[in-house]
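Researcher: Good morning. I'm working through a list of sequences from a screen, and I'd like to move beyond sequence-only analysis. For each chain I'm collecting a predicted structure so we can compare shapes side by side. This is the next one on the list. No need for commentary yet; just the structure.
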Amino acid sequence: MNILKLLLCISIVSLLISCNATGLTNESEAGGDVSASTSLSIKFDALLSEQYQSDQPGAAALVAIDGEVVYEKGFGLANIELNVPIKPEMVFEIGSITKQFTAVAILMLVEEGKLSLDDEITKFLPHYPTKGHTITLHHLLTHTSGIKSYTSMESWTKLWRQDLSPLELINIFKDEPMDFEPGEQFLYNNSAYFILGYVIEKASGLTYQDYIHKEIFEPVGMTSSYYGSAQTIIPNRASGYQQTDKIINAEYLSMSQPYAAGSLMSTVHDLFKWNQAIRSNQLINQASTEKAFTNYELNNGEKVGYGYGWFLSEINGSSTKEHGGGIFGYVTNSIYLPEENVFVAVLSNTDFNGPGFVSTKMAAIAIDKPYPEFSDDVSVDTDELASLVGVYDFDDGATRFITMHDGSLYSQREGGTKFLLHPTADGMFYFEGSFSNLRFTQEDGKTEVLFKSRASESVGIKTDKPVPVKTEITLDSATLMQFVGVFELQPGFDITITLEDDKLMSQATGQQKFQIYPMTKSRFFLKVVDAELEFIANENGAYTSMILYQGGQEIPAQKKTSN
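Model: Good morning. Structure tokens for this chain:
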């Protein structure tokens, strides 16, 4: 987990159905084996009720198999202040799932002859500075344009509340240096989909909002889907929440800012209708659908794992078409498995408890390919574990540190988060809270490891390099107390330092709280992530600023003054 990331992102402890679940499991509609449907419901209830507590922001979830909804429930609260529980029909901001609608709108206009995927963006933005490069709609759709994504620009954070026209926001990022030449890399890009929204307006003669409503929502029957608005009365809207040192109402964001990259609102059932419309070629023909779901390549032939508006991945060998979304106060995820005809959608009204992990586990259960549950019954000889400790260089250029503590292995990519590794009976090690895993092999004095995630795999070879070690020193409470405060990294994003039981704790906006350990009298390190914090004293000896060291970057932060 990157301590700077704002969330644009379980084990089953009980099979009891939690009292915070609302709505009905549609067993009578599902057909087939009712007992099988009940078994699925119990498993889904356990997963969701553990992640979303009854007195906290929560989520709505839906699972459909063979075109029939077999599960549809709500967990947690839609409005904390009014103690209103989430029901399945609640409306959520869906964030970047919006990109699916934008991509399909482009394909619809291509079918009408109003666009070509090979059109250059200068056809619609004649004065756009392409730096001598050819940037096409295809590049925008596949996140391979090289254009700077405006949501990665520090200057953008000052504009969140402003209502801007599409051209006004495009002017914010158009003169930024390109990240790479078109087609050379894949880099997720909100600017690209923002521009696509403007292209839709130019080609159709309608605003983006009107086009999506008239040409997609109405024909599909998505009666509970909207272009986002804080002013419009939207029935069954779930309030959004963020977390700093406590749960707060979500920061206001003008919906002119995410626009075609993330402005839409919907329900789990409307997203199921959307999935059905795409499957049945209701909006675009089969040839266009195949284009949307093609795993495109970079200039060097490397596949990017993305089509037009959908990530293309797999769950335990079954292919998926999926997308998540993250926007202030909401995190969402939807997954479709075409081989098994299974659709899963989980929409949450909290940006500190995202549904990506739980929805993937639900999808795996629905196709009867569940991820392994970890058990203390699986043990590995400590000498065998110790032989795996070391520094591994991977064929994709990464370096990973395998360490051992209290009889367990940990894995940490250089500059990244440290994960506990859970051994399984088949000799694999799964990352805590992740679907990534490692499989070690030892032969002829050489140790190799295969790293596999849902998106990729790579091979690492153990080297003779020493594992970096950070030495912890002891500081008394009076010394630690000097560092307590809130340090602003950028507007709306802080690191809060607290002293709890003689331990100094750090918590980034919207993220978990972690202990930091002193290396010197003013420099600390985290054990869960490869990062350090250095506190800087002013001329009076008070610690009024801080530097975050992570991933080769040095990011300054100023201490906020109390009112």
